[in-house]
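Bug report (template v2)

What were you trying to do?
Predict the complex of my protein with zinc ion.

What happened?
Run completed; filing so the output is reviewed.

Input:
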Amino acid sequence: MARRKDSVPMADVPRAQACPKCSRVNSTAGAKTLQVEMRPVLTREVFAFPDALAEVSCVKCEGCGHWICLDYRIELDDNPEIDLNPE
Ligand SMILES: [Zn+2]
């Protein structure tokens, strides 16, 4: 079994959130939690990254339809492989 980091729990969601696009203040009562597949960008230092799901808490702006991200949490099956001293 691979070592696994504990997931960081979701923060408490505020009751209202202003849209970053149109500044309309939206109630977060109808916030949804979506599962999004992670597509990490690999670098020389992080050369392998396990498949991961991100759980995203978000609410859709009633004014412009923009999805506002309230919080997210990344679920990893394994730890990323990091080499701080690449050749
Ligand atoms: Zn908006």
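What did the reviewer find?
The first strand starts at residue 16 and ends at 18. The chain has one domain: 16-81.
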